Amino acid sequence: MDEMDMEDIAKALVAPSKGILAADESTGTIKKRLDSINTESTEDTRRAYRELLFTTEGVSDYISGVILYDETIRQTASDGRPFGKLLEAQGIIPGIKVDMGAKPLAFSDGELVTEGLDGLRERLAEYSRLGARFAKWRAVIGIGDGAPSQYCIDTNAHALARYAALCQEANIVPIVEPEVLMDGDHNIDECYAVTETTLKTVFDELYKQRVVLEQMLLKPNMVISGVDCPIQADIEEVATKTLYCFEQTVPAAVPGIVFLSGGQSEQRATEHLNSMNQMGKFPWEISYSFGRALQASALSTWQGKEANIAAAKAAFLHRAKLTSAARDGEYSADME
Ligand code: 13P
Q1: What's the 180 CA to ligand 1 centre distance in angstroms?
Q2: CA–CA distance, 317 with 313 (Å, rounded to integer)
Q3: What burial letters (b/e) apply to 13-38, b meaning 16+ CB within 10 Å?
């Protein structure tokens, strides 16, 4: 991997049949996940859970890269190997979440802006020494009660571009993640409009800040109905509107679009991804960078118990295989 440049890394992350595992839950978020299986969140349980995922044999057929959290990139597996090295030995590229979370945006009621630019150049240099070849920064755009404001979109887009430029300066591939949330009762067309404006603004900022499009990946939401919307768009409508939105906004020079799952069920996220990949050839690869939609079965099978590790690994491998099939447009529900 050492001889690969940023363009090679970006392409390798979206190689055929492969996508990214997002395992970069912050300490607060992983606690919520572990709470859901009545397991205390300690440094050791978090390590054990991540080790279960990263040592699942065969998963490198489906997973090109893993996004780690600051704590995890410094941890070692039970055999003493640092997690980054353990992944690399399987041909999986280690990545790192570098944002410091979404905080209240000044003079805006309830909107958020992602922090973490101060000292980022130095942190990127350290993460590079620790083996990270790509990074992630997530901006959060909510819909409802007049939101989002253009102010919120602009400030988040500006920060995303500053992050992406610093990454490329450090020879690290930036994953640019502007997530339009699915929380709320808005319909799919409202999601479309907000996603379109957000992406136009983000790519404008990336251009102004000299980010090289061939050396990045975009990690967006799908264009989808709000979770509480009484009329839920079907799979084909989601796939069609999502692709149309990206055709309007994402330059062809970007090598890949890696979707987040955003709270969709494992199966729904897989069906949407599959449908898009069945709709033909596009300028960019259409792949995944799922957190929950790759981990939910593994987590609930594990239940924090040593005795369930083998079954949890099998559940994770199965889910990764189905997601990979969807990335190639070859998934069908009977494979579940
Ligand atoms: P989900 O797929 O669970 O949305 O997580 C992906 C991610 O990394 C969000 O930042």
Answers
A1: 12
A2: 6
A3: bbeeebbbbbbbbeeeebbebbeebe
| Active-site residue set | 177, 219
Q: What separation in angstroms does the CA of 331 have from each of 16, 52, 219, 262, 303?
A: 14, 25, 21, 20, 28
CB atoms within 10 A of CB 211: 23
Integer Cα distance of 171 and 86 in angstroms: 21
Query: Is the pTM higher than 0.90?
Result: yes
Does any ligand 1 atom lie closer than 6 A to the CB of residue 291?
Answer: yes
Phi, psi for residue 22 in degrees, rounded to 5? -90, 105
Closest ligand 1 atom to residue 289 Cα is 6
Four-residue CA torsion sign, 101, 107, 109, 111: negative
Hey, what are 335's tokens?
């494979």
pLDDT by position in tens, the chain (length 336): 668 999 999 999 999 999 999 999 999 999 999 999 999 999 999 999 999 999 999 999 999 999 999 999 999 999 999 999 999 999 999 999 999 999 999 999 999 999 999 999 999 999 999 999 999 999 999 999 999 999 999 999 999 999 999 999 999 999 999 999 999 999 999 999 999 999 999 999 999 999 999 999 999 999 999 999 999 999 999 999 999 999 999 999 999 999 999 999 999 999 999 999 999 889 999 999 999 999 999 999 999 999 999 999 999 999 999 999 999 999 999 999
Give one DSSP letter per residue of 217-276, joined into a string. Answer: EE--------TT-SS---HHHHHHHHHHHHHHHS-TT--EEEE--TT--HHHHHHHHHHH
Ligand 1 proximity of 261 Cβ (cutoff 6 Å) = yes
> In the CATH scheme, what is the code of domain 6-335?
3.20.20.70
Q: For residue 333, what is the DSSP state?
A: G
DSSP label of 285: E
